[in-house]
């Protein structure tokens, strides 16, 4: 047995969390546009989820929010003056650009990067490719800081390879781990990596945006030196995207031997099953399919049943689903889950509900908020220790959130130049709580 473990690194919700309706094809983001957001509650909900997983016996990491509003980007677009003036001017003259510059979307760490554990990579290193997130203007801004964060977290080049984002172009559209699954007999064993794409670069587009191209998946698999004999590329069902599954992780999640998915998640389910089975040397895959006549795509998307975290608690004989409370509030998904976990020999035998409502209103469930990194004990020892959550760090973060975050952000509050000062002073302090240093955020150098 290998001692490698899968560690969830959650994105800390940033102080500018708001509802701007920025993501076409993400029904929650559209539905909740211009609602009053509660940044303090959002961040505390995220932290409480991380602490819950720790209480269940799992290791947990944390990733810092990005500098928002992104004043450097606004300066590059010709705005000048003090940082507060840049913000006021941008807000007044370019509202679309300003809203993108304010988004706290880096909280959804499943979109930060694609991770391949060292067991899967020919050079024996753990590989990470930063996602270019090129489909949405507000998200394309994330790659630069994500790369710096991952370099701080994974500094040892002999063990870790952090790749820059693919050139941001429509043909190489990449949204990271949200469109990537891995099945393995246990986390440290060689796995089967499954890349899920929505379109090929040459195809004409129709319907909601398909944010992942096959070409991007191929590029990542090549850079990570994955074995083609253990790598699968599967097309997401176009009807799932059009029903609001803008990432594969809205309709499917995998862990160890288990792939839990909606009947309509994949364009060719039979081919996917056959390919996984054929490539799964040493692993007996279990497919847990939720039929559409039990849970329709619409209920899957509104409840975020599949955007749950699927994991094995220490010593447990079956997997646990960490689901959003919205799953419990939906009769269809609630009764499906209740029945599923009591089946004899259920692959998924427990459910835990977590409250991440503020994030959910922007289309981000428990699984969106985390980036999974499988680490061997040696890799964990080589990673920067300050990103791993313990009670002391959690208490510091809780105090920091409570001191710095606004309780509410209404659409009319967003123009306020004081928001720039507030978020900068919050992030400045954060660089002393997490191992970021005095030059991490661009404003620190101005
Ligand atoms: O990219 N929402 C994010 C949600 C990302 C969820 N991630 C995963 N499924 N892994 C998105 O659409 C909304 C922001 C706003 O509208 O203010 C937003 O960016």
Question: What's the quick description here?
Answer:
The chain has helices at about 25-30, 40-55, 70-75, 85-95, 95-100, 135-140, 145-155, 215-225, 240, 270-280, 295-305, 325-330, 330-340, 355-360, 375-380, 390-405, 420-435, and strands at about 5-10, 60-65, 115, 125-130, 160-165, 180-185, 190-195, 230-235, 250-255, 260, 285-290, 310, 320-325, 350-355, 370-375. By secondary structure, it is an alpha/beta fold.
- Return residue spans where pLDDT drops below 50 for at least 5 consecutive residues: none
Rounded to an integer in angstroms, the radius of gyration calculated over CA atoms is 21 Å
CATH superfamily placement? Succinylarginine dihydrolase
What is the strand content? 15-25%
User: End-to-end span in angstroms?
Assistant: 50 Å
Shape: globular
The name CATH uses for the topology is L-arginine/glycine Amidinotransferase, Chain A
For the largest sheet, list the strands in their spatial order. Answer: 2-1-15
| Helical amount | 25-40%
SSE-based structural type: alpha/beta
Task: Quickly count the domains.
Answer: 1
CATH architecture: 5-stranded Propeller
